[in-house]
Amino acid sequence: MAITERQAQLVATARDFASAMTPPGWIYWDTELYARDVAEIFGHMWLCVGHQSRIRNPGEFFVFDVGWESIIVVTDASGVTRAFFNVCRHRGTRIVSESSGKCRGFLCPYHAWNYDLDGSLRAAPMMDDTEGFARSDYPLRQVRLENFMGFLFINLDPEAPPVTESFADFPDLQRFDLPNLERIGHHDYQVDTNWKLVCENYHECYHCASAHPQLHRISDYGTLPANDVGGENYIGGPMAIKPRFNTMTMSGITERQTLPGCTAADQRTVHYFNLLPNFLLSICPDYVLSHTIRPRGPEQVMIETEWFCSKEQIQQAGFDPSDAIEFWDTTNKQDWKLCTDALRGLKSAGHRPGRYQSGENCAHRFDRWYIEKMFDGELG
């Protein structure tokens, strides 16, 4: 039986890198496919929601939105970190509207049902005369939450394997002591593009010379990782820093201490990883950068960017991370413009899939992962 044009496009992207074609435009803007992305990828894979340093103390919380879900992540009074659907057990109202904060419990704004930090229902006004009602039957619904390298991951699928099993083949980064880092800066970006374009952009530097002059003069594009870099649920690898620089900042030079455990090789390298599907982790010699991707539609994504350093670095006299924050804020905004323009072009009737450049091997690895995950039955 002859294959359709759609199948031919998918098969062409799933081919080996040397002969593969870039994906068809419709995989980025099709509304039905976006709904499948949310349900089949974001509904079953481990999603990074942030670093544990955000909620080290009881009562500290933040809200993570993905697709149509809103999740409260909080540390309870006993120091246990938990995640709950941001949904009142009475009539389904969103309980928390703030993006983050500190509290002693959660009060539904509709009918004042009051929940403790551990999710238990501690008060439900005027419900005592309701036959068979017991507060213990109506706690906030929990979401699976696990810690990996100091970062908090949730999974909406109660049957999914543990996060450590999902990333069992991920490189050992214990030397960097990631769990004990502290957040030193953050920016939230709302970008009018598809989440997959953000990931693809992260995985190639073919665009760096023309789009990122401040990055290109520091980062050695020639050291991009080989085709086989990555594992079952991650993609990425190292990129060298050019000889006369020692970090990724506007000047390329810093006197900051390096991260704990940073080896001589690490001091000349930036490690870039995409923990599929939504977490971009970049480890520079003297700080860590992360991007957490939150799809909000086929043509919109929220990207939370955070910078981290160790306590020892923060205590160093004259500590000032603004050079690193400025560098990546500039780079991010350049990338988001590219991703927005890419989606516009991909919606054009004039678009046809093209060929990958030799440095886009990791971008192809991401594309192939996506095509095989979502269209396995159509690849023959």
Description:
This protein has 380 residues and is of the alpha+beta class. The protein has 2 domains: 5-43 and 174-378, Naphthalene 1,2-dioxygenase Alpha Subunit, Chain A, domain 1 (Alpha-Beta Complex), CATH 3.90.380.10; 47-164, Rieske [2Fe-2S] iron-sulphur domain (Rieske Iron-sulfur Protein). Helices cover 23% and strands 24% of the residues. It contains 10 helices and 16 strands. The strands form 4 sheets. Strands 11-16-15-14-13-12 form a 6-stranded antiparallel sheet. It has a 4-stranded antiparallel sheet with strand order 4-3-2-5, with no helix packed on it. A 3-stranded antiparallel sheet has the order 1-10-9, with no helix packed on it. A hairpin with a 6-residue loop joins strand 6 (106-107) and strand 7. Helix 5 (195-202) packs antiparallel against helix 10. It is globular. It starts with a helix and ends in a 5-residue tail after the last helix.
